[in-house]
Amino acid sequence: MTRRLPPLNAVRAFESAGRHESFKRAAGELNVTASAVSQQVQLLEDFLGVALFERHPRGLRLTTQGRTYLSAASTALDQLIDATRRARAPDANKVLTVSTTASFATQWLVPRLWAFGRHYPDIDVRVSASDRHVDLAAEDVDLAIRHGRGGYRGVETELLIEDRMTPVCSPSLLQGRHPLKNPEDLRYQTLLHLDAWPLDELLADWSSWCAAAGVSDIDTARGPRFSEKYLTIQEAVAGRGVTLAPLSLVAEELAAGRLVAPFDLWIPAGANYYLLYLPEALDKSKVRAFRDWIVAARDEAPQNDSHGAASAVVPSR
């Protein structure tokens, strides 16, 4: 049986015009003229033998038949778009998008990506740095790495890094007029703070670390505050203060000697890093490759560069 299909360009024009109830806005979306949209809609109406719009001086209004046809057309186009996305050479499409926080991207992921590229040179990784919620089912994101307490709904969730924290600083602060030798010496140093953790009521901070260290006569609220953890780390590397940092974000600096952890006291961070992906995502070889690589990479000491020179071992978890 021969299928009698409507003119697909006309269906596309009608679907856009129907959603917007405007030829002009549809024209902007389709990058054509309003006249071209109108002509395509008229072509579809002639094909169907029904009016899809009521045309008024102030705009368009869908007819009853138009509303019914719009629902079917929108569903069909959505299904076609989704099928096209899935069918586009699943393993030839080697762009993999990872969403993560700015601090994790800067301090952990990006310094290690060269190693992933060395093992998978045909996969191009795009890192999207954002703290906002990402809808993996609706957005073009393959995996997300988020900092929190777990319990993410509708996605597969793997604990990536169970974090712990300790003060870190430039080696220069171990010398000078008030060298950092004991926790009590923090009273002479600038304390660097993170000011925008979404879960800050449960995350470790200077007061909780000092309490664990048995230090009670330090004003733990003083010092500058920053919106991202990597900014406090940069300040610490520059020797402008001491930051309470999670091991995951300072492992490379510790290994390279740009930072030191003067006290052997680590406390739970209160939140951990989780790897999130849709249940069916691992059916894609590029997603499975990245997932397997990052799970293995979390337990490895960072490397200096693509030449593969090993760095010093950081404290174990």
Task: Give a written overview of the molecule.
This protein has 317 residues and is an alpha/beta fold. It has 3 domains: 8-87, Winged helix-like DNA-binding domain superfamily/Winged helix DNA-binding domain (Arc Repressor Mutant, subunit A, Orthogonal Bundle), CATH 1.10.10.10; 95-162 and 272-297, Periplasmic binding protein-like II (D-Maltodextrin-Binding Protein, domain 2); 164-268, Periplasmic binding protein-like II (D-Maltodextrin-Binding Protein, domain 2, 3-Layer(aba) Sandwich), CATH 3.40.190.10. It has 9 helices and 12 strands. The protein has helices at 8-20, 23-30, 34-48, 64-87, 102-119, 206-213, 229-237, 247-256, 285-297; strands at 53-56, 59-62, 95-100, 124-129, 143-148, 156-161, 164-168, 191-194, 225-226, 242-246, 267-268, 272-277. The strands form 3 sheets. Strands 4-3-5-12-6 form a 5-stranded mixed beta sheet, covered by helices on one side. Strand 3 (95-100), helix 5 (102-119) and strand 4 (124-129) form a beta-alpha-beta unit. It is elongated. Mean pLDDT is 85; it is low at 304-317.
The percentage of residues in β strands lies in 15-25%
CATH architecture of the largest domain: 3-Layer(aba) Sandwich
Indicate the percent of residues in helices. Answer: 25-40%
Derived from helix and strand composition plus strand pairing, the structural class reads alpha/beta
By DSSP, the count of extended strands is 12
CATH superfamily membership of the largest domain, which one? Periplasmic binding protein-like II
Largest sheet: 5 strands, mixed
Trace the largest sheet across and list its strands. 4-3-5-12-6
Give the CA-CA distance, first to last residue: 67 Å
CATH class of the largest domain: Alpha Beta
Order of helices and strands: HHHEEHEHEEEEEHEHEHEEH
CATH topology call of the largest domain: D-Maltodextrin-Binding Protein, domain 2
Poorly predicted sequence stretches spanning 5 or more consecutive residues: 304-317
Oligomer: single chain
- Give the CA-based shape: elongated
* Rg over CA atoms: 28 Å
Overall number of structural domains = 3
The number of helices is 9
Mean pLDDT score: 85
